[in-house]
Every structure is written in C-alpha cells, then in structure tokens.
Amino acid sequence: MAEQRNIVIVGASSAGLMAAHNYLKFILPALKAKAEAKYHVYLINPSPNWYFRVASPRAAASTKRMAVEKLVFDIEEAFSKYSSDDFTFLEAAATGLDTSARTISYKSKKSVNDESLDYHALVVATGSKTYYPAFSQSAGTQEVFNAIKITNEKVEAAKDIVIVGGGPTAIEFAAEVAEHRNGKPGWFGGVQRKANITVITAADRLLTPLRPAISKTAEQKLKALGIDVVYNSRVVDAQEDKNGRTTIILAKGDKLEADLYVPAYGVLPNSSWLPSNLLNESNYLKTDLKMRVAGAGPRVYAFGDVASYSRNNIWDILFALPVLAVNMKRDLLSFNAMLPDEQPKGKDRVYTIDTREGMMVPMGTTGGVGAVFGWRIPNFVVWLAKGRDYMLSMSGKPAVAGETVKETAWTKEEAAI
C-alpha cells in the first residue's frame, strides 16, 4: 500500500478555504500523476460553517437590513464535490503544534482528549478575530447568532451609542446603525436623530490608509447621518453596569455613557495554540514573503490574517494566493524521501506587497468612499461594487465553493524543479 502523506490546513477562514480548494483542484492532480504516494487533505475548523464577516456590519445593525442566515455557509457541502479519498473535514479546534514530530493536536466535540494528526505539509490559516463578537467567528455559529441578536436588540432600544474605531468596520457599522435608526439624509439636510451615535478614534482622521480628502468625505457622510465624530481620543476603560449601560473612560479623563458600546478597532490573530517561538511580538505567525513559516521546518506555510506578512485585508489574501500555490506545489512535487528537508531547485515566487490605496467602505445603502489601486472611486461605484449587499452574491457562496480560485501559471524559472 502506498504511503499516505497528509496535507493539513488549519482554519476555514477565507484564506483557509482558498488554500484547500487550490490544493484539491490544481496541486493534487499533479501529485497523483507522479503516483509516488497517496495524498489526503484535512481541513480543521471549530465550526462546520463559514461566516461571511465582510457583511457583518449590516447584519449586526439589524437583521432586517440583512439576514444573518445569509452570511453562513456549510463547509462540508461546499467541499462535497471532492472525493472522500482525497478530503476530510474535521470539526475541531487546533490545540497544539509539534514541529519536531510534525504533528498537530486538535480537540473535537466528540472526544474528551486531544487527538493528533501527522502532516507532510501544513498550512496555518486560522485568521483573526475582532474584539466585538458580532464581527467575526472564532467559535461556533450559534455564538455569532447570539452576538448579532443581542446587538440588534440594543441598536433598536438605545438612545446613546458609542462606537470606537476609525477603520472600515467602525465606519460601516456606524453608518448602518445610523441609517437604520435615523433614516437616510435628504437632499437639502440631515436626519432627525432618534439615537445619539458617536464614533471615537485615536487617530486625527478616519480611514487613515486612505488620503485625507477621502477621510474628510467619510466624516461628512457620517455627520449627514447624524453621527458625531471624536478624534485623538483613546478609550482606557469601559464598564457595564447591571442595567446594561456602559461608562466609557477616555485617556484625557472624559467620560461618556452609552446604552450600546461597540469596540470596533483592530483584530487579534487566532494564534494562541501555536508555539510562542514561532510568533512575533504581536502574536502573528512569523512568515516570510514566500508564505513559509520561519523555524517550523519544511513545507509549513502561513496564509492570511494570522501571518505576519498580512495587513489584515482581503488584498493580502487574494494577491498572496498565487505565491502560496506556486511554492507549495513546487515543494510537494520536488519532494525526495531520501532528502526530506531539501529545498526545490529553481526560483520561489515572492509576494510583493501593494502599497497603493485599496479600500472600499460602504456607508449605508446609498454609497460610501474608497480607492482601488491608488485611484479614488466615486460614491455610486462603492454602492455598485460593495454597498448593495457587501459583495455577498459575488463573494459568498462562490468563495466557499472555490469558484473564485483559479490556477496559477508558473514561470520558466519556477518550473525548473
């Protein structure tokens, strides 16, 4: 019987799903043609569903604006087109990694103790989580549903709402909440406030990756929706009382009261299960621009938000996928059992980070602000591309089903293995 070599992908984030589909569609057939061993891919994720977090600001504001059920997709169904001889989905949480033994530990709901799985190649794609649970999924689907439900209820009843953050999630959520509670601004004026909504940011402007002129436009749109913006202010504490009202304390000593307090700034990498020596000072997995993990041994890769190369945006997933695809395929096809640690000949592909402006931020259902590849885009284009349904129809089911993953062509130098 042929030796089985396991390809283990940890995390069914956007990055993990893309990596799994890419392997099954384009790398596995080439490995089967060599007929040296049997290859099997394991996809490990704590939830059986993928949460389309891109659209979470709209659903979190109100499921009347977007039903949360539309944002959840069944992972096993999406991979049902592949043979069970080639693919297994494990509903489990990764608990440890032993790079010397080349094994990963995981725990499922079905077992009391941790289980272990050896890997020939490993892709870590566990992504990141937000501070506010409605905007990401790091556990089960029901936890997300509960967070959305609680947020919806507070949005409906709140008189005072404070949202902290100056990035896309904070701005999108604030605009969705304001439009839901206060309505859309008219041609000749703003709205009648039914809720007092305040956005607080530590920066001196909104959406700092974009040019100041776009930041100013975003501010004007928020104000037209009846939202106050507070700059250069950092939250140092937030305490919720028994009645559900939160006291927010700013670094300068000011205090605000809110019926709904939403920390919508930044993310945390899902890396607590990884060895500390593989993580940088911010707990991201140390990854070079070839998608390989430094110090983890051969054929270990990181992809997406959990990796240190990433700036936690979709561009660093989409544009890095060809790099992972090429280098992983080269490593696997050139593998020599007599020299298992040997690097392939030829040239690796290296990821080049695109520093041009690239962000689209819907602000309610009528448009928004943004730039693509360094070009500012008008309000109606933001609405057309993203604001209508947060790209759900274009990037929801097609993404989880792997329809957006295309084969990457090799250069002559890369093919010289």
From TrEMBL:
It comes from Ophiobolus disseminans. Residues 6-307 form the FAD/NAD(P)-binding domain. Keywords: FAD, Flavoprotein, Oxidoreductase. The keyword Oxidoreductase applies. This is FAD/NAD(P)-binding domain-containing protein. One of its GO terms (cellular component) is cytoplasm. SUPFAM superfamilies: FAD/NAD(P)-binding domain. Gene3D superfamilies: 3.50.50.100. GO terms for molecular function: electron-transferring-flavoprotein dehydrogenase activity; flavin adenine dinucleotide binding. Belongs to the FAD-dependent oxidoreductase family.
